[in-house]
Amino acid sequence: TLDAGIFLPKASLGDTVFLDENENGIQDDGEEGVEGVVVNLLDCDGNELDSTMTDENGNYSFTELDPNVDYVVEFELPDGYEFSPVDQGADDTADSDAGEDGRTPCTDLAPGENN
User: How far apart are the first and last CA of the chain?
Assistant: First the structure.
């Protein structure tokens, strides 16, 4: 009669699509988010799991994700734009992570992580 229920807390991921005015691959002060960009959540085999759009500040988020699963984020490039250079600078929280195909590398989420 002395049971214990346990679970793995869900994870989430998200961030910003920004207008890289100086094309350096880093979101510098004053570079604002871009509204209305389609963002897809994929598994590492390229299967679409979910989709959303960036808000008025360029932010997007996927929540209630299974931990210990690998995910890819895919950004649909608006007409007339190109992707910024990837992994520029020392601050990984401020650089662009989408490659020329608009996809991030596979990312593993730990239980309770907000990446």
Answer: 39
pLDDT tens, position by position, for the chain (115 residues)?
Answer: 899 999 999 999 999 999 999 999 989 999 999 999 999 999 999 999 999 999 999 999 999 999 988 999 999 999 999 999 999 877 777 889 999 999 999 999 999 999 9
Beta strands in 44-115 (DSSP E): 48-53, 59-65, 70-75, 107-108
pTM of the model: 0.90
Whether residue 84 contacts residue 25, with contact meaning beta carbons closer than 8 Å, is answered with yes
Which amino acid appears at position 11 of this protein? A
Cα dihedral 60, 62, 67, 72 sign: negative
Angle at 71 between CA 66 and CA 72, to 5 degrees: 155
E strand segments, 34-105 = 38-43, 48-53, 59-65, 70-75
